[in-house]
Amino acid sequence: MKPERVLADTNLFLRYLTNDVPEQADAVEQLLRRAAAGEMVLVTNSLVIAEIVWALESFYQLPRDDVKDKVLAILNTPGLEVVDGDMVLRAITWYAEKNVDWIDAHNAAWLLTRQMRTVYTFDHKHFARFEGITVKVPGEEG
Description:
The protein is of the alpha/beta class. The chain is 55% helix and 13% strand. The protein has a domain at 4-83. The relative contact order is 0.12.
């Protein structure tokens, strides 16, 4: 019988990564151990990652490289599946290396994952940092 697949929500990761509520961090550690042992498969998605990035930036005030390291830790957690993990990896790398907002990095990674190459946006500054993407600004395309 296959192990049950269950959603791991944002607050689990935040408690574990920040240890700001030690009892909850310990409970999450036990859950992660169960998943690593194959008792279940924890699944999360890019919306959860987006909320994690936002919380680590705004509430915990972590620098980009620390946020990136924490997201990479999530991506490399045994027993945890991140839906579209390759896209999330590309996005978190760009977020830190290109100094762009998480959502812009995510959208650029999403675009390329779907073999799309052009974006219409008024945010030319950020999207111009992504190789392989053509940026068009409405009203300026001649």
